[in-house]
Write a structure and sequence with these properties.
InterPro entries: Aldolase_TIM (IPR013785), NMO (IPR004136)
Strand order of the largest sheet: 3-13-12-10-9-8-7-4
Pfam families: NMO (PF03060)
Helix content: 25-40%
Protein name: 2-nitropropane dioxygenase
Strand content: 5-15%
CATH topology of the domain at 6-53 and 71-250 and 345-360: TIM Barrel
Distance between the termini: 34 Å
Largest sheet: 8 strands, parallel
Keywords: Dioxygenase, Flavoprotein, FMN, Oxidoreductase
Shape: globular
Bound molecules: flavin mononucleotide
GO molecular function: dioxygenase activity; nitronate monooxygenase activity
Order of helices and strands: EEEHEEEHHEHEHEHEEHEHEHHEEHHHH
Radius of gyration: 19 Å
Number of helices: 14
Length: 380
Amino acid sequence: MSLPPLRIGQYEIQYPIIQGGMGVGISWENLAGTVSKYGGLGVVSSVGTGYRHPNYIKLKDGRPIGSKYIHNREALQRIIRDAKEIAGGEKAVIGVNILYAITDYGRVVRDSIEAGANIIITGAGLPLRLPEYAPEPHVALVPIVSSARALRVICKHWKKKYNRLPDAVVVEGPKSGGHQGIPYEDCFKPEFQLENIVPEVIKERDKWGDFPVIAAGGIWDKNDIEFYLSLGAAGVQMGTRFVGTFECDAAPEFKRVIIESKKEDIKLIKSPVGYPARGIITQLIKDIERGTAPEVKCTSNCVVPCNHGEEAKKVGFCIADRLGDAYLGRVQTGLFFSGSNGYRIKRLVSVKDLMRELVEGIPSGQEIPEGEPVESGKQL
Ligand SMILES: Cc1cc2nc3c(=O)[nH]c(=O)nc-3n(C[C@H](O)[C@H](O)[C@H](O)COP(=O)(O)O)c2cc1C
């Protein structure tokens, strides 16, 4: 089966594949720009952008000071413009992922739109006020939900208050990398698994309109994509597989941690954001358990639910500093998010090859159609 295009608002994406936003620094200009260039929707992460362009910001002990510098306007705008440039210029379509839980959410939405973001994707909380910050009709609004109930609450509120509905909705199941939208125990229950929540979210969507439903969490190959399309989804969002690309903006050390991980190393951990998060059990997680992880200082004031480091102290680590360290390639103190499939990444491939694999169903670097040269992936 050839994969159909995906329409989100006024934008048509050639293939129904969204590269999920990944922070800190996993999906910036290079990954997002290249995914859009090869026919998917590339999504820039808006969190921790001060780490990308430290020359724009103020630091204390090597950390961005406060939300103005961690979720930095100039750095984010430069990333969005550079992503568009890589994707083919002004007309290219780029999404921006903005966690609802970050401090300065509304300001970051405005910063993104000013820099040319076409699609705003928001999870980590119900983005009830998103249409207020993004009233421009050409900017498509896409909430991420983990249940039909969450979609209902958003549609009801947006319709009543802003006379607006989502332009698409991402449904994320508990195999996904990073933060989950449901409590720890629910992540293991059958009724919260992706294959069971997608049909329910589609039923809820039908009550409101016909915007696309996009499935996310644990999707690996073309068979998985076809499975979710057969359930009625219009597309998929994938994160972990894109970490295993040359173009991914993560440090080489991050890619090595994921390539060397084993199935049993990928687990749900507690996070100061208030939701469980899926990541790789590394030295940091052992140090958190022993109480020997780096001290919580809250220099960056990154997310509202952490309450200036109060939650961080309870769970034993600062999320901004630890994700920042992963971006900087510090393996001992970094926090490495991954979906439950991370251990299946064995080597890096190019985004072009990965997109082709996903679209044509041919594993990258194995069966190469005659007459078409393919760059081979190399071992780190
Ligand atoms: C390293 C990593 C970081 C992530 N960071 C974010 C983020 O900042 N915001 C967000 O909404 N989702 C984030 N996610 C989730 C992805 O956008 C995507 O929805 C998810 O990874 C899909 O599941 P998969 O990894 O099994 O493909 C992250 C995922 C990974 C693997």
